[in-house]
Amino acid sequence: MQDTTWDLNPKFDFRDEHGVRRGKKVSLAKIPTEFEGPFSGKEHGVAFKENAIDEIRDLQYQMFTEAKQSLLIVLQAPDAAGKDGLIRKVLGQMNPQGCRTYPFKVPSSEELAHDFLWRIHKATPAAGKVSIFNRSHYEDVLVVRVEDIVPKSVWGQRYEIINDFEKLLAHRGTRILKFYLHISPAEQLERFKKRLDDPTKHWKLNAGDYEARLKADLYREAYEDVFEKCNFRHAPWYIIPADKKWYRDASVAAIVRDTFREMNPQLPPVDADLDEIRRLYQRELGKQ
Ligand code: ATP
Ligand code: MG
């Protein structure tokens, strides 16, 4: 039994701490990958996270019943930075009736025969719902740029198209949160090693992940451009120090919780005549 009482409401603004400043060039190399925020250590962070998840679930329920607003969570990260773990341990804890995860892989030939937002738009959340994007439309200015899949004249125009698209979603009542999980090259290599050592993770091994490490500088530049060009109040970027998995989970949970609080979803007004329903209930009770 844990006998320490953790402060589950520390005075710490996670959105302010990790939110990318608007219109400013970010230098990813200067942002720490290891951080403990207001927590005294792992146990504190885990207790905070559990508490935040409980509140997220309540607020998600209210948003579902309200059926007006929606939430889109975008996850981007280098390989092994922990998108899957974050979904499993935090975001996937929401009620699946109102929440769905969409992984975006290399586009199919059908997807490639359409504009790059075609497959994305279909996955955006309806009123009351949450969508989680495991990778996203940002791949179309990240891997596509670094790997030279289309020329600069094409990907260069996409930032503005993405901004217009996200504005459209916001206009409809969708809040957008974009997370970049920031890990150090050393921590990434350590996680690659764990995958090699664990037969249940061998299916994840991919020589391409090592190729991407050779292009780390190009990815860093591509991400820095995204943070500068596609970062707005209605669709902000957060850079999450992700070397410590527990801090990654706690800080994302805090940001999602604080955003839900701000959205302030309300249970719908009661249509039924409560006195009449109580009377019917009493009638049925009397028959027992
Ligand atoms: P993990 O971290 O567990 O490896 P993952 O998200 O990397 O998960 P993978 O199946 O390994 O999943 O990789 C998906 C691949 O699809 C990534 O390399 C990504 O860059 C690529 N991809 C996603 N969207 C696009 C796109 N629009 N164009 C080209 N490649 C894309
Ligand atoms: Mg991968």
UniProtKB/TrEMBL annotation:
GO molecular function: kinase activity
InterPro entries per UniProt: P-loop_NTPase (IPR027417), Polyphosphate_phosphotransfera (IPR016898), PPK2-rel_1 (IPR022300), PPK2-related (IPR022488)
Superkingdom in the source lineage: Bacteria
Gene3D superfamilies in the record: P-loop containing nucleotide triphosphate hydrolases
Keyword Kinase: yes
Location of the Polyphosphate kinase-2-related domain: 52-266
Any Pfam family: PPK2
Family of this protein: Belongs to the polyphosphate kinase 2 (PPK2) family. Class I subfamily.
PANTHER family the UniProt entry points to: POLYPHOSPHATE:AMP PHOSPHOTRANSFERASE, POLYPHOSPHATE:AMP PHOSPHOTRANSFERASE-RELATED
Protein name, UniProt field: Polyphosphate kinase 2 family protein
Organism: Aporhodopirellula aestuarii
